[in-house]
Amino acid sequence: MTKLLHKNVTFWHRFAANIIDFCLFSIILILLYKSFIISRQKLTVIDWYSFLAMGLLINYSLFIMIPYFWNGRSLGQIILRIQILNTKPTNKILNILRTNIPSWGLYSLITLLFLCGVMPWQIDFISSLNDISNFINDPNLPLNLRFIARIIATLSGFWSIINLLNYCFILASKNRRGIYDRILGFRIVYIKHYSVSQKMDEIKLIPHQVNKTEIIFHEEEHE
């Protein structure tokens, strides 16, 4: 069986794929927020939970369902023709959940905080969420909502720092692998692959001039 080799993608290919996925999810989420939250004169329980459910559905569709049917690749990776290779392979769904946890994990956790921490009679406060800093420091805000807002702000800041460090690792390492790659056990590579024989054919032997070395023989005298 021929062993196939894959080359790790460059920083800019990875960054562009992540930007495509992030922008696509953000645009859809903003449209959902405007449809279910902002456009309503009075926010109802049905509108609020519909927004949370649709957000989770879009999140799982982009980062779990699409990769499941496209060999672990997100839309950004499909567009740029790159893929994920697992260095710790398990079954298919576990591979997708593990390698894409930075994408779906944060939003799922935030949604869980809203579901568990926001009471149905407190939903009217959500419609006034224009600035996160004002929302956190609002003295009229119930304690549980203020606590949730602080947790979300902390998680978002931590997620941003980890992603920044991940990109720094990619730029600094020779093999273009970041923190997520090393911890979660995967590589981001080009779809184009090479066989060992093809790589050997690319090796060119270049003649190298060697200076002649003078060799002097000494005759030993025997008594």
Characterize the structure shown:
Residues 10-184 form the RDD domain. One of its GO terms (cellular component) is membrane. It holds the Pfam family RDD. The protein is mainly alpha-helical. The chain has one domain (4-202). It contains nine helices and three strands; from the N terminus they run E-H-H-H-E-H-H-H-H-H-E-H. The chain has a three-stranded antiparallel β-sheet with strand order 1-3-2. Helix 1 runs antiparallel to helix 2 (45-69), helix 2 (45-69) crosses helix 4 (92-99) and helix 5 (101-117) packs antiparallel against helix 7. The chain is elongated, with a radius of gyration of 27 Å.
Taking the alpha carbons of the first and last residues, their distance comes to 67 Å
Proportion of residues in extended strands = 5-15%
Overall number of structural domains: 1
How many helical stretches? 9
Average per-residue pLDDT, rounded, comes to 82
What helical percentage do the residues reach? 55-70%
- Largest sheet geometry: 3 strands, antiparallel
- Flag low-confidence runs: none
H/E topology pattern = EHHHEHHHHHEH
Strand order of the largest sheet: 1-3-2
Structural class: mainly alpha
**Quaternary structure state of the chains depicted:** single chain
Coarse morphology: elongated
Rg estimate, integer Å? 27 Å
Total beta strands: 3
Protein name: RDD domain-containing protein
Keywords: Membrane, Transmembrane, Transmembrane helix
Pfam family, one: RDD
Membrane topology: Multi-pass membrane protein
